[in-house]
Amino acid sequence: MVDYADDEVVSRGRRRGRRPRGEGPAEGESQQQEQDPAKREALARDLIYRALGMRDHSRAELRNKLARRGFDEDLTERMLDKFVAAGLIDDAAFAQRWVQSRHQFSGRGRRALAQELRTKGVGEEEASAALDTVSREDERERAAELVERKLARVEIPEDRVERDKLTQRLVGMLGRRGYHPSLALSVVLDAIRDKAEAAQD
């Protein structure tokens, strides 16, 4: 038997740019319409399309959106299952895109990325696979870029106390972005040493 609701998920997913603007039922719709199962399913489907039209979402994020709009758990899971089956919700792919984007453009380290994925409700298996796409070498290289950008605007102090303060500030900056303390310290010390030596040449 053909499930036309599932077919609609696929066909509409190919033209997600065309979405109604409002999130809920139009003013004047009756309470009976809002409680009608088919109407509720259509409203839930439209909400998911609009969310995915803005950006990728994890299944948990979409579940929370539907819950905040008052959709019951059975309807929510049924609709999400249809979108998963259609390939429009994929937590593994979402996690990989999130990690690559946040690491490359926001300079986030693995610790911060892991926390962000937990916040998004991504499962441990999917999160671990996504985090593995950022190697230790990748992480060190990105951390070095962040430090070099900061050092480009400052002179390396001759005074040991002032140099230690600079080191602490840079290590703290990397720590806030999710880099392990030992990696952060190693990167900062190397960068400060290299710039100090270059200034003496």
UniProtKB/TrEMBL annotation:
Residues 44-82 form the RecX first three-helical domain. It is found in: Cytoplasm. Keywords: Cytoplasm. Its main location: cytoplasm. GO terms for biological process: regulation of DNA repair. Belongs to the RecX family. This is Regulatory protein RecX. It comes from Tsukamurella paurometabola.
